[in-house]
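Repro:
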Amino acid sequence: MEHIKDQLAKGTWLTYRPEIKILDCTIRDGGLINDHGFEDGFVKAVYKACVAAGIDAMEIGYKADKKIFAPAQHGEWKFCDEDMIRRIVGDNPTDLKISVMADAERTDYHNDILPKSESVVDIVRVATYIHQIPTALNMIKDAHDKGYLVTVNLMAISVVQERELAEALEILTQSPICSIYIVDSYGSYYSEQIRDITLMFLKAAQGKNIEVGIHAHNNQMLAYANTIEALIVGANRLDATINGMGRGAGNCPLELLLGFLKNPKFQLRPVLECISEVFVPLEKKGEIEWGYRIPYMLTGQMNVHPRAAIKMRAGDTPDDYAAFYDQLIEEE
């Protein structure tokens, strides 16, 4: 394994890898903390910051099925209708690619994902749990046939057996995707595990013109470290969010990642300006919360979904950590 790692590790502290691409998923993942109710001004500020910072792609939200999720009960970025995306980006006359996420079994992809010739969207990211792969394969083919770049996010792999994961990778890498993402859904992985998993994904993708990416969560304050570990081993597609915004403990902070990468096309200052101008005021309102908290640490350590921690933080005793710990122990 170490021999393989030595062969795949690229670059040095004094160089940069131009093949590394960053996708900002602030609005999509951040939308999970306010039910996708961001105002246009906030979304536009993120878009402008990503353009100015040289970010490669911006994921603007979900393509959720309106028969499953009633539009009156959710914000617009849950659905990303074409007119609402164009309200922010127009015809997107920039180098920034626009991405949407399509959840397996929760997307009316036949009808709601338009042909690429009719859309300003560039990338469709299919998100799937391992048991949903047959549906995901149909979605991948549909989006590819419509003219999009298609990627797949394989979610919650920390609770998947290695044999099943290997089989899933073999199947998915035979589909017309350009990238496959490691997703640490529960923020439970340590860097040593990320190293081995990244090597596993790279081996599955080898010779198939498929890049490996990582989407890390910050439950144990390791999202940035794990992203860097995957990068060092050979992952070229990196997810991040401005100010680490995302569900629960949030994600790898974009500003940390930009500070690490040496590529001169990436600019940190526009992101810092955006944080100061729109994220800090939003945090001060106190209406939504994201970032490291002990309950998220506990769900990460126990490798379980953060929904219990999210519920606890919204309840009457958000700081009773010992009681929450006891609850998790009882549920094991």
